[in-house]
Amino acid sequence: xxxxxxxxxxxxxxxxxxxxxxxxxxxxxxxxxxxxxxxxxxxxxxxxxxxxxxxxxxxxxxxxxxxxxxxxxxxxxxxxxxxxxxxxxxxxxxxxxxxxxxxxxxxxxxxxxxxxxxxxxxxxxxxxxxxxxxxxxxxxxxxxxxxxxxxxxxxxxxxxxxxxxxxxxxxxxxxxxxxxxxxxxxxxxxxxxxxxxxxxxxxxxxxxx
Length: 209
Prior knowledge:
The chain is mainly alpha-helical. The protein has helices at about 1-10, 10-35, 40-45, 50-55, 60-70, 85-95, 105-140, 145-155, 170-185.
């Protein structure tokens, strides 16, 4: 919501002031958290399961193990949807201690399957899509800011979930549908010329009856 608020502003001065304020708040929160000021709050927010929550329910050790696998095929990956073979599933299970059939991170999953090249193409597409919807929103398109928020939420959701590689899932279809609606332009109708009836004689200019 903070990102949406900053993008919806039209004056650069407002953006810089509010972005600086958010940065100061973020840094202050991080400093106080590192000093242990909010240590009493963690058990309450995590319902007593602090260790499991700090590892994002096992995602962090999983990502660490998968990043090592990325370096085996860094540029093109293992192939489209080809990484999670039975051998790799067994190997990752031995490393992290539980069975995983996805990276639980859309960007790591993209690196594993299509490498740096695939991830670069994917991020280019979504970055350009964000630019398009923001531009449309500022020009008055009522769908613009809704599409921006959905795209931003979709990209953030892929930090802890693997949705990007699931190409037939509903979120991707919604993204493509929104972009299609925004790129389509309404038809413009030119005014038709009035035609005289067949056989009707034209009156000379300035004639009177």
